[in-house]
Amino acid sequence: MSGSVRPASLLSPTLTPFLYPCLDGTWIRARTCTSRRILRSISTTVAGKPPVDIHQYDHLDPSPPEYTTNLFTDSTTLTLHAGSGGHGCISFLREKYIANGPANGGDGGTGGSIYIQAVGGETSLHKLARRSILKAGRGKNGQGRLKGGSRGEDLLVTVPVGTVVREVWRKDPVAEEEALDWEERRARRRRKGKGRDMKDDENNEPLDPSEDQSSRWRRDKWLLYPGALPSWFSSADFPALPRPRRSNLAMSQPPAPINLDLDKPMDTPMLLAAGAMGGLGNPHFVTKSIMRPKFATKGDEGMKVQLQLELKLLADVGLVGLPNAGKSTLLRSLTGSRARVGDWAFTTLSPNIGTFVLDNYRGRPSIHTNGSSKEPRTNFTIADIPGLIEDAHQDRGLGLGFLRHIERAAVLCFVVDLGAGDAVQALKGLWKEVSEYEILREREVNAESERATEHTEGVIPSSAPSNHFASGEEELLAASNAEGGSATRRQREEDIVLDPQVGRQLPKLSLPPISSKPWFVVATKADLPSTQENFVRLQQYVNDVEASVVPHPSEKKNAWRKKLAALPVSAVNREGVDGIPTLVLELLD
Ligand SMILES: Nc1nc2c(ncn2[C@@H]2O[C@H](COP(=O)(O)OP(=O)(O)OP(=O)(O)O)[C@@H](O)[C@H]2O)c(=O)[nH]1
Ligand SMILES: [Mg+2]
């Protein structure tokens, strides 16, 4: 021990004597009664203990065949196809003595809808990543005797809690039809208003009455009686194409673009894209002149939407450390996790989540409170992410891809290896990467909000509710006034949520800055020889940060400085780790 440092006064009042018995007496200042009880029990077992066998806990230092590998994917792109509607049916009643009965074709069924639900218990998107396109079922075609087609099968996409969903693009054929229909009716209205001279205001050209699109026969929209040739039908025989329709369900769709943060388990699935409407059967087109219409309409095409899913794991504690620091070993010693451990860098290639059980319901109930909810806390979760290397924030190593998983951790646990050089420098290096990542993230959030503003200004979302809820004339008047029209639309969009549980757009999560999160340091491999001085220097530095004698390692103003602690542990021998839950609970609550 160097003479300049006064170790006894610097060491934390935690588990130091356990590892450094020569410094005994410093640990008596335990923070809480609980930690004092734990420490006392450890110290009594330590007295007169024979040297520890490093391999006594096999699962903490496993042999290679025992390594577990888990499939993990934290981001993927999915293309979802809502179900198309079934076609309407062309059919006529035929019974004994009724040779040429009336039309009795049923309507086509509505296509299946797409729902999303965040569920607990899942920690990866790999199942979804294997399937890039997911399709809901198509509605069945209508049948004779006015039998409507059955609905298409719905599709439920289940994602882990913590998934962020962003829309990449969408193709909504019904919205395109609506836009076309709206243009046509506006042109018709203008013609009506202009009277006989019929001049187009923009081009100043005479309008051709035959240009009326509504009466235009569209082959792709109509279904003809089997065996009938299109030439048998003149366009005059066809009624105007029915206006585009949407199911009632479409009103609970989130407005475009979809931007969800599913940070809580959902009781009910949330609608993403409603299935398209089925076509109309031939009875809809019976008129005085056409008593037996030999045509029906086809079902609408379903909406397609591409979504980017990104998983941000939700854990109470995030382990941050250099490669090979001993994070996975620490996770294994604290929890029942089977995280892969190995004596080389980048053993961990994807995040692991472990659960520390406080109350296993076998004894007296746990009395730990659970933050805001005030319910007893029965466990807390710990996320172990791949090691960070210098410039991880510039995507070196595996860092950047996985730093997002600690974004939502309530407490950060910096893991430094006492046997691998200056622990203070290691801690400063880790903080540098974390704060650089924070800057990157802030920039990304700003860019995203700018994009969102651009999108909403003056553009009618493609999933704007259908016009068929208002009477045609009323709506035309509103729409002819550009400003008023979009305002009405926007207003209606806010009003249309039928089921507040299912149709709500989840609020965007506003994450606190990473540097303002509570943190502590775990100095691992304290069983290695001559690590004592290194730990003492680390302890001194942490105390100085707490007392604001030196700047915070993140160099941020409002960074967390309360209750800082550095704990020496030997995870591989499971020594010193018992103090971590107590500290974590203090910081969590
Ligand atoms: N002596 C000693 N060795 C340890 C201790 N903790 C971990 N190790 C060893 O350090 C090596 C690396 O441990 P890991 O837990 O895989 O380290 P990691 O930080 O998860 O490494 P990456 O996943 O590569 O980032 C393994 O050989 C462990 O047995 C400890 O407390 N004492
Ligand atoms: Mg690891």
UniProtKB/TrEMBL annotation:
Domain OBG-type G: 315-589
GO cellular component term of the entry, any: mitochondrion
Domain Obg: 70-314
Keywords: GTP-binding, Nucleotide-binding
Comp. bias regions, Basic and acidic residues: 448-457
Domain of life, per lineage: Eukaryota
Record InterPro entries: G_OBG (IPR031167), GTP-bd (IPR006073), GTP1_OBG_dom (IPR006169), GTP1_OBG_dom_sf (IPR036726), OBG_GTPase (IPR045086), P-loop_NTPase (IPR027417)
Gene Ontology terms describing biological process: ribosome biogenesis
Region Disordered: start-end pairs: 188-213, 448-467
Bias (Acidic residues): 202-211
Stated name of the protein: GTP-binding protein Obg/CgtA
Organism: Polychaeton citri CBS 116435
